[in-house]
Structure formats: C-alpha cells, structure tokens
C-alpha cells in the first residue's frame, strides 16, 4: 500500500540503501544511486544468483560482455525496429505520457472502485457476506469490473495490430484526461524507441552511432559459439551474465522498480530443438526454488503465464512479486526458440550452429532464458523485510528482516561499556571475524538503542561483550528477528555465525 511504499522510500534513504542520483542537483528522473548498505545488498543478491547459476550447475558458465555492441546487433535482435513504447502528448499541458499506461491506469482505478464498493458492503452485511456473489450481481460493481478489464484487453489487441490510431480512439472513447490538468486534448499516438543512442570515435566524420544495450542477452547470443567451442560445452548448456542495461523509460515512477539505468541477471540455456518446452518447465521450477530459498514468503510470488506471445517465443511466463504497489513482474522466463541465433546468422553471415556428435548433425539450438532485474529483486527483498513491530512490553521497533545471507552487515560487535578492556576484546573478535564476513563496531549509546539501530539497519546478529566475558570467554549473540539471546564461547563464534550467514550454507536450501 501507499504508506508502506512511503516508508520504504524514506527508510532506504535514511539507512544508506538508496539515494536519488545527483541529489544535490535535484536528482535525475528514474536514476538512483546505491549507498553504503545498498551496494552491499545488491552485491550479495548478484552473488547469490551468480553462484546458484554457475556453481550449482556444472553446465552453466558465466561471461561479462561489453555494454557497447556492434550496432547491427540491435537490427538483428529487432530492437531498432520494434523496441518501442506508444507515446501520446497532451496538447494543452504539453505533458507526455505512455498511451498504454494511461489505459492501464484507467483500468486500475476502476478495479480499486470495485474493491471499495465490495469492502463497504462487507462491512455492512457482516459475516454472511459473499463477496464473489456480490461482485457478480451488484450492477455498480459489475460495471466497475468491466471497466477494469475490457480496455486493457482491447489495448493488447490494438498494439498487436500496431493500430496506433485505434489506441488514440480508445483513449478518447474512455474520456481519459491528463492526470495533472484534466485536459482531454490529445495528440496522435506515436512509437518511441527506448534505446539510448551515443557515438563512438573522435572525429565527426568517422564517428559511428551506437546504442547503450537495452538488455544483456544479446552479449550472450553473439558469444554463443566462442563459449561453446572454448569451453567444450555440449548441448544442453547455459551462459549466465549480470550487467547494466539502459532504457529510456517514459513513465518514471515506482522508485527503483523502473529505472533508466538498471542491472539485469540473465541466463540463456541452449537446448536441442523439440526439447525446449520440457526445459522451460525445468527452469520455471528451478527459478522459483531459488526465490523460495530466501524465505520472503510463498504468498508473495505468483506465475503469470503470457497468453499472447511475442512472435519469437513459444512459451513465456513472468514471476510476479507482491511489491508495495501490487503484484508486478520481477522475472521473465521465456522460450525464445532459435529466433535470436538465426537472426544473428542472417545479419552477420556467420554460422551459429552446434555440431551434435550423438545425432551426428548440425543445428541452431533453441533457447530458454531466465531474466531478472537486480534492482527489482533488491526492492522485493527490501520492501518485504521492512516491518514495524509492537513488542510484548508495548514498545515499537522498526526492523529490516533481510535474509542473513543478503544482509549488508552480518554482525555488529558491541562492547557493553567503553572501558574495562571490553573494546579491546571487541577488536580481537573483529580481527577474527573480518576474514569471513562484514562486521561493524559500535560503542555509542545504551545497548538497547544500539540493538534498535542494528535492527533498522538490517544486521542479523548483535554480539555483545560484557563484564562476564572476561570470566567465561563468551559473548551474548542476539538474533535480530526473534530477539532471543544466546551465550556463545568466543572460540566458537566464527563457526556459529558462518553457519547462519554464509552463502555456501544458504545455497544448500535451493
Ligand atoms: P516491464 O514490462 O515491467 O517493462 P519488461 O517485460 O520490459 O518489463 P524484460 O525486457 O523482460 O522486462 O526484462 C527482464 C527483466 O529486467 C524484468 O523482469 C525486470 O526485472 C527487469 N527490468 C526491465 N526493465 C526495467 C527497468 N526499467 N528498471 C528496472 N528493471 C527492469
């Protein structure tokens, strides 16, 4: 909901997770910087994905292709001709909108109206209320629900048919107004390419037009044979990659969910033609197992199968996540056939075939791709982790329950007092732990306040050194989520913490 979303934004800033880019110059729309904690969280998510792909699967290797690619790449991939959003301007306000988003928002608004009516009726009728029956029979609710569905269905058909005049007509028919000014004076709808252009080369005459890559996948396709040959890979095998991608998004909202510069984690799995739908199912399951291992809650995920497929795909699904603004795409899993490799063969004139010794023949493999936005995964983790709790004694705490494997700081080392040799013991503990995990020293304020600060920071363990430590050579370890405390011998501390935070331990849960 809106309140939770606002909390996420302010907490992310206050605790050094996400800042607006170039904030002192009032920021840059849809571009964000990650702070000291955000950079760690992002790195840990990336690593958790990378190791799950390239370490747990013997048949998957990773590459790191350049952001700049030969411009023909984007002709072959279809991005030059078809990577567009339909735009519309309001003639009075001169504001620019995505035509499809205006229509989607119209539907969303009517869905909310329907829900409000149902909620009101539920309150009125009490226990006997049948929400399903009510939404099917109450004329007002039926009307709202129709308006929440029909327009997007018509929109999908119009876009499929590239009927931009039809999209404009639909906006006029629905009497959609400029959300800022209420004006209904619209221009025609036109296609707008999302790729950022730039130039390579020093002199004006010889400079070549380039694009910043809008997805990392093409770097994998063009390297398919390099990797296959140099790595002696046999089909089926996969290539994984993480890296920046750039899209000139027009609707810049929803925080780091939709950015102009973002990071993708993609894996292309090359299979024998005819086996792709089996592998598609395998990868759906494997990717969901990866998500489940982090424990963000099964209810927060759902598959959304595509009914309408892109021309190159023969199966596609999204893993949607319950973000503070509702279920939205977190990851895509697509069966892309041989579309990309064939297109690159055609445009480059080079063969991109695999010789299958068992079959004794050449073929262009089919591809299953899994593609997840690192920033969206960050938002999924962060927004689910942030909770306000009322404790037994009636006090409140804000806690960031980030899975320990992903947490920026694994343990805070806290001497109860700044004297009596306690800081020195803390330093010894840090010097032992720092080789295997990121820890943080904190000696300021009363211990209760330090615990709260670490809760809000997302640190899963607090290690407190007190006066007994000198006697029993042990410390108190406090668990962020349960707030239970355990006495652990200093000599066992590293093993105890590693068991709970180490990536190697968490990867076993997949
Ligand atoms: P959407 O429909 O939300 O624009 P998409 O279908 O265009 O997404 P893909 O092209 O399939 O997305 O890209 C794969 C993944 O990359 C997405 O599932 C998402 O996690 C991420 N992604 C795409 N665009 C952005 C963006 N502008 N900002 C952040 N992440 C993005």
From TrEMBL:
At the top level of its lineage, which domain of life is listed?
Bacteria
Which GO cellular component term is one of those annotated? Answer: microvesicle
Tell me which EC number(s) this protein carries. 6.1.1.14
Q: Which residues bind ATP?
A: 247-249, 257-262, 329-330, 373-376
According to its UniProt entry, the protein's GO biological process terms are:
diadenosine tetraphosphate biosynthetic process; glycyl-tRNA aminoacylation
State where substrate binds. Answer: 98, 215, 262-266, 369-373
> Does the keyword Aminoacyl-tRNA synthetase belong to this entry?
yes
Q: Which GO terms describe its molecular function?
A: ATP binding; bis(5'-nucleosyl)-tetraphosphatase (asymmetrical) activity; glycine-tRNA ligase activity
Identify the keywords attached in UniProt to this record, alphabetized.
Aminoacyl-tRNA synthetase, ATP-binding, Cytoplasm, Ligase, Nucleotide-binding, Protein biosynthesis
> Could you tell me which residue ranges the Aminoacyl-transfer RNA synthetases class-II family profile domain spans?
157-415
Locations listed in the record: Cytoplasm
A Pfam family that this protein carries is HGTP_anticodon
Q: Which InterPro entries match?
A: aa-tRNA-synt_IIb, aa-tRNA-synth_II, aa-tRNA-synth_II/BPL/LPL, Anticodon-bd, Anticodon-bd_dom_sf, Gly-tRNA_synthase/POLG2, Gly_tRNA_ligase_bac, GlyRS-like_core
Catalytic reaction annotation: tRNA(Gly) + glycine + ATP = glycyl-tRNA(Gly) + AMP + diphosphate
EC category name: ligase
Q: Which family does it belong to?
A: Belongs to the class-II aminoacyl-tRNA synthetase family.
Q: How does it assemble?
A: Homodimer.
Recorded hits in HAMAP family, A to Z, give:
Gly_tRNA_synth_B
Chain's role: Catalyzes the attachment of glycine to tRNA(Gly).
UniProt-listed NCBIfam families: glyS_dimeric (TIGR00389), PRK04173.1 (NF003211)
According to UniProt, the name of this protein is Glycine--tRNA ligase
